[in-house]
Amino acid sequence: MSREKTQAELEAQFQAKIDAEEKIEPKDWMPEKYRLNVLRQMSQHAHSEVIGMQPEGNWITRAPTLHRKCVLLAKVQDEGGHGLYLYSAAETLGTSREEMNEALHSGRAKYASIFNYPAITWADMGAIGWLVDGAAIVNQVSLQRTSYGPYSRGMVRICKEESFHQRQGYHIMMVLMRGSDAQKQMAQDALNRFWWPSMMMFGPHDAESAHSAQSMKWKIKRQSNDELRQKFVDQSVAQAEEIGLVIPDPDLKWNEERGHYDFGEIDWEEFNQVISGNGPCNRQRLAHHVKAEEEGEWVRDAMAAYETKKRQRSAKAAA
Ligand code: BYC
Q1: Digits of tens for pLDDT over the chain (319 positions)?
Q2: Which of 53, 61, 140, 182 places its Cα 20 to 30 Å from the Cα of 30?
Q3: To test ligand 1's pocket by mutation, which of 40, 41, 267 has the most ligand atoms within 8 angstroms of CB?
Q4: pTM strictly above 0.90
Q5: Residue owning the nearest CA to atom 8 of ligand 1
Q6: In ligand 1, which atom is closest to the CA atom of 135?
């Protein structure tokens, strides 16, 4: 005789599936806390992609050559596309894009702290591509193996595009470092301003991270915040040296024993301020997003009206 499985049995079965490296799909049973945690991370990730279009979008009209303009335009469009993949994947968890946007606008949902810093020179386009996309790739390569199927598949597509983003940023820095003293200084200044905020992208230290332990057990996250940050430092040092840039950290030093670079401490007070809405550009970024949402309302309404009309027509034809 069959009987209903208890909650404990369902949870044990779910964990066994994860331990066996099977993906969790939208219609599978999942603990409510798993659903909410993946939804939180994915929606924040989607918001980061879309809000992240703003600092670079601001430079499209001022790119120094037609070629740079085309490349930057393509990159910013890609970020919008990444947002769309992620919103669609997140919607499979039963929350609409409107609800996710509402959570963003009300401050309940976050987006990556890095996008609350201004992009004030052309070299910032280089630093963002090289460091911000560089940090994002380190994180996202790891997330390709996340346990939630739609998120994992979205990451595979996104990673393919991110490596082009990182290279175009590094190329901007490389060309500036071959230029005049003023250009070299501009590149170094961009690195000085974006280095520490990029390090913050990986989140708090593992011991302080609210979600890490559970997210690692459920394999939503495959590597910890500190592990990924170390990977980013190790890869960035050689890249900076190669083109003559100096990473602004007096404590940065190769540690033979660990086989990794040691580095200085992040200003966690600054991080906490930025993620609580008090960074240099938080208000500007959100206001811009709200404005774009309002201005796009007529397009969404028109599309919804068109779909309704189409459905009515086909229902009439079938009758
Ligand atoms: N910024 O327990 P923790 C891109 C929050 S965009 C803001 O460690 P978790 C690009 C965290 O949410 C790609 N908030 O959290 C686009 C939590 O608060 P809540 C961006 C942060 O989730 C355009 C609290 O702090 N990538 O590539 O286990 C141009 C405690 O943290 C941050 C992603 O979004 C932060 N940096 O780990 C260029 C990656 N760090 O939610 C490039 C996806 C922490 O309880 N996300 N918080 O209110 C992740 O991998 C993880 O969510 C994190 C944090 C590693 C970021």
Answers
A1: 567 889 999 999 999 999 999 999 999 999 999 999 999 999 999 999 999 999 999 999 999 999 999 999 999 999 999 999 999 999 999 999 999 999 999 999 999 999 999 999 999 999 999 999 999 999 999 999 999 999 999 999 999 889 899 999 999 999 999 999 999 999 999 999 999 999 999 999 999 999 999 999 999 999 999 999 999 999 999 999 999 999 999 999 999 999 999 999 999 999 999 999 999 999 999 999 999 999 999 999 999 999 999 999 999 999 8
A2: 140
A3: 41
A4: yes
A5: 209
A6: 27
Q: Which atom of ligand 1 is nearest to the CA of 201?
A: 36
Residue nearest to atom 37 of ligand 1 (CA): 203
- Pocket of ligand 1 from Cβ distances under 6 Å: 40-41, 44-45, 48-49, 52, 79, 110, 112-113, 128, 132-133, 136, 139, 200-204, 209-212, 215, 221, 225, 275
CB-based contact 173:130 (threshold 8 Å): yes
User: Letter for the amino acid at 152?
Assistant: S
- In terms of C-beta density within 10 A (0-12 exposed, 13-18 middle, 19 or more buried), how is residue 81 classed? middle
Q: How far is CA 25 from CA 147, 192, 224, in A?
A: 9, 43, 23
Residue 141 half-sphere exposure, CB side, CA atoms within 13 Å?
A: 10
